[in-house]
Write a sequence for this structure.
C-alpha cells in the first residue's frame, strides 16, 4: 500500500486523515519537551504512555473493524505505514517465533528523540498498545535507547506479568 492510499488531506474540511483516522500535525518533540518541563520527566512519561498506548489500541480496533479479514501481518504492515505517513519515522518491527520473547521496535529518523520523559514513551507506547490489542496480551516497554550515530530510537516490548489475586 502506498502512502498516497493511506494519507488524505481534505482542504475543504481542513482534515488530515491517515488510514481513515483523523490526525493533527503537531511538533511532537516540542510537545514532549514542554510536557517534561511542566510536570517532570517521570510524570510526563507516565502520561504519554497512557495516551499513546490507548491510541495504539484504538487504531488496531479501527483497522480490525474496517478490515475484518486482515491478517496480523497485514495489520502490522498498516501500523508501520501509519508511522511512515504520519511523520513518526521509518519503523521496523521484529516479532520472534517464540511468542514469550520480546518484540523489538526500531524507528529510524524518529520525529521524537530521547530516552527520558515523554520522549521515551512517545512512539513505543503506541506500539505497546497496538500490539497489546493485536495479540490480546499486555506489553511493557523496556530498554529504550537512542542511537545518535544511526538516528534511531529502539526498544523492546515485553509481555507484562499479570499477577492473580490470591483467594
Amino acid at each position: 500500500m502506498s502512502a498516497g492510499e493511506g494519507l488524505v488531506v481534505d482542504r475543504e474540511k481542513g482534515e488530515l486523515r491517515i488510514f481513515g483516522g483523523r490526525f493533527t500535525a503537531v511538533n511532537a518533540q516540542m510537545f514532549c519537551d514542554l510536557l517534561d518541563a511542566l510536570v517532570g520527566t517521570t510524570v510526563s512519561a507516565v502520561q504519554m504512555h497512557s495516551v499513546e498506548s490507548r491510541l495504539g489500541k484504538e487504531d488496531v480496533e479501527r483497522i480490525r473493524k474496517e478490515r475484518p479479514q486482515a491478517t496480523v501481518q497485514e495489520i502490522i504492515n498498516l501500523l508501520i505505514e501509519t508511522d511512515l505517513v504520519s511523520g513518526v519515522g521509518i519503523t521496523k518491527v521484529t516479532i520472534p517465533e517464540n511468542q514469550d520473547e520480546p518484540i523489538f521496535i526500531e524507528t529510524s529518523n524518529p520525529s521524537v528523540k530521547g530516552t527520558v520523559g515523554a520522549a521515551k514513551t512517545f512512539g513505543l507506547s503506541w506500539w505497546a498498545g497496538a500490539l497489546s490489542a493485536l495479540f490480546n496480551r499486555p506489553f511493557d516497554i523496556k530498554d529504550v535507547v537512542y542511537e545518535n550515530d544511526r538516528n534511531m530510537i529502539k526498544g523492546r516490548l515485553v509481555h507484562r506479568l499479570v499477577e492473580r489475586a490470591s483467594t
Summary: The domain at 3-159 is CATH 3.30.1380.20 (Muramoyl-pentapeptide Carboxypeptidase; domain 2). Residues 41-66 form the longest helix (26 residues). The helical segments are 3-6, 28-39, 41-66, 72-86, 117-135. The first strand starts at residue 7 and ends at 10.
